[in-house]
């Protein structure tokens, strides 16, 4: 557990998770390379997002944190907690406040993903790219290997870049995904095009084509 001295089993939020959220949440991993399926989120909890491993939910009474719940059968919880332990506190990352059986409590990062910036025609300044570069270099300095860093896993917040998913930062193999995204930013993300919305189906086609190319 990564604990700041306040969070623990007696914290009222942990009781909410253990007694209300986990017994009623229904999530399932149906395809290993697709986001998990979310069938039920009990009120007043709200779904924030879903990745390949877990769903992220929030409670209105605790707006500063989110809960990342791993789907049954999906590994990686202990590894992600270890990543956060090594990262400690850094402005471009969240922080793990507590972890229990199948879930993590994370400090919430607000912003908009770079994927949604492109989809909505919201310009992404170079500062965001530089911030993420610095954050990934910091992770490397802590003995981590940034992996699976793409447009849905990084965000822009107040004009600065943040990394929202570190679940694969202990994988041993190298990953050039972020470097490829930077090359696309420099080559194709020209100023006249930055306010032009790109439909989601086009971005998904690009994502699938990229995966095929990298196989």
Report on this model:
This is Serine/threonine protein kinase. Keywords: Kinase, Serine/threonine-protein kinase, Transferase. This protein has 215 residues and is of the alpha+beta class. It is 34% helix and 20% strand. The protein contains 6 helices and 10 strands, in the order αβββββαβββααββαα. It has helices spanning 12-24, 77-87, 114-120, 126-141, 177-188, 200-214, and strands at 26-28, 37-40, 46-50, 54-58, 65-70, 96-100, 103-107, 112-113, 154-157, 160-163. Strands 3-4-5-7-6 form a 5-stranded antiparallel β-sheet, covered by helices on one side. The protein has a 3-stranded antiparallel β-sheet with strand order 8-9-10. A two-stranded antiparallel ribbon has the order 1-2.
By CATH reckoning, the class of the largest domain would read: Mainly Alpha
Question: SSE order in H/E notation?
Answer: HEEEEEHEEEHHEEHH
Task: Output the structural class.
Answer: alpha+beta
Shape descriptor: globular
The residue fraction in helices comes out at 25-40%
CATH architecture of the largest domain: Orthogonal Bundle
- Which blocks of ≥5 consecutive residues have pLDDT under 50? 1-5
Overall pLDDT confidence? 92
Straight-line distance between termini: 36 Å
CATH topology of the largest domain: Transferase(Phosphotransferase), domain 1
Which strand order spans the largest sheet, edge to edge or round the barrel? Answer: 3-4-5-7-6
| Domain module tally | 2
């Amino acid at each position: 557990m990564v604990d700041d001295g306040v969070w623990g089993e007696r914290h009222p939020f942990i009781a909410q998770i253990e007694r209300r959220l986990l017994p009623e949440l229904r999530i399932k991993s149906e395809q290993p390379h697709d986001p998990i399926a979310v069938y039920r989120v009990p009120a007043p909890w709200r779904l924030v997002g879903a990745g390949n491993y877990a769903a992220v939910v929030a409670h209105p009474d605790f707006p500063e944190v989110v809960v990342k719940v791993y789907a049954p059968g999906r590994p990686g919880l202990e590894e992600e907690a270890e990543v956060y332990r090594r990262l400690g506190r850094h402005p471009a990352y969240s922080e793990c406040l507590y972890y229990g059986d199948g879930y993590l409590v994370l400090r919430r990062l607000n912003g908009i993903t770079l994927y949604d910036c492109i989809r909505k025609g919201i310009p992404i300044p170079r500062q965001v790219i530089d911030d993420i570069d610095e954050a990934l270099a910091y992770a490397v300095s802590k003995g981590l290997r940034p992996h699976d860093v793409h447009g849905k896993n990084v965000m822009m917040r107040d004009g600065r870049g943040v990394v929202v998913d570190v679940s694969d930062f202990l994988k041993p193999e190298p990953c050039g995904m972020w470097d490829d995204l930077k090359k696309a930013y420099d080559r194709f993300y020209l100023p006249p095009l930055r306010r032009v919305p790109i439909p989601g189906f086009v971005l998904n086609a690009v994502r699938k084509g990229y995966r095929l190319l990298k196989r």
